[in-house]
Amino acid sequence: MTMWAAGRRPRRRALGAAALLVAGVVVPAGAAASEPASRTAGGGTARNVILLIGDGMGDSEITLARNYTVGAGGRLHMDRLPMTGAYTTYAVDGRGRPDYVTDSAASATGWATGHKTVNRRLSKTWDTDRPLPTILELAQRNGLATGSVTTAELTDATPAAIAAHVTDRSCQGPADMKRCPGDTRGRGGPGSVAEQSVAHRVDVLLGGGKRVFDQTITEGPDKGRTVTQQARRLGYQVVTDAAGLRAARPGTPVLGLFAPDAQPSEWTGKPATTGGTAPQRCVTSNPERPAGSPSLEAQTRKALELLDGTRGNGRDRTGKGFFLQVEGASIDKEDHEANPCGQIGETAAFDRAVRVARAYAAAHPDTLVVTTADHGHSSQIVPVDSRPAGKSATLVTDEGGRMKVSYGTNAGGGGQEHTGVQVRIAAQGPQAHRVLGVTDQTGLFTTLRTALALR
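-> structure tokens emitted (455 positions)
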């Protein structure tokens, strides 16, 4: 005879031992113990949003960094976000059908606009090539301050998608418009990514790409000026090193250009090879990285300081909040090069930026923090005694163990490729519960817009 048949009421399982039910959302007990329930439950409206993107940071890339830096049983800062789900990342082709492996332009367009597009296109429709409103533009229209931080060029795909609209991601500067004739100023378009980013008067723009911003504008009202001169005309403080960044003050927009192209990676080591490398420890420095280069952590901290007190675009924005996107770009770049040490170092650097964001949110509970990736990538952890068909490298972790990393998404001399796998998305703060389960990249746009109550 069962418990039910005996007429006895079944004992209700206590959620407190394993989870806490708040506002209809089951919150893991560990999260509830360390975070106020209202913060982890994810209801309400956010004053601020901090979106952190690890470019190419799939589950393998996260696991590699965790194993190497804090141990297999340890936890990264991004692991401690209480609401964790996954989202799909596919693009579309020229007929609107799924293109199962996205590039960074189409994926960034997904969360920036809520729409799918074709690979290489930035925040424009896949069929008619028309501009789509971005989350940054909506935030500006609603009076919020805005910022973008990246270790890549500020004109690279991920930062470009929130601040520009071009037919092809290569159209970064005035001299790069060959693939975007309809976007040129001479044809009535908005110009290159660099010109559009500056014209938007984004309150904080920090990253690399000085070479692009030093290109001369050939059409429109700023003809004859460089994009950097255009920025100064529009009131930007232009800084080029850590000292200049520290001296920047809120009140006028800040443009930080810390490298000619992408900022050099923080760690170095021997790239994977066919047949594998000897066991190695990573070198936690890079001689190619100038001493005055601010870290992603420092850039994120300064961006938050500036946005917290900014007054821009002729309107008093104090008290209205902000939208900030932060990208750890070279996880992807080092993955393309099959360089596990460079890749792990960039993931660790990104994780320190996550720590800064979470510390800010702890002091400002009305802040939504989201961390995710734009797409998966090629690195895989395989048995140490395996013989991978592609390139591999063996690392000696901080725990003293050996970890073999395999790269096999492209044969011969070509770089490694993106993968079409779903990737992690995690969050804390207002509307954080919206990332639970399996969603799509375009749904992140709705989460951000809903959290900030953007019209």
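Confidence is low (pLDDT under 50) at residues 1-39, 311-318.
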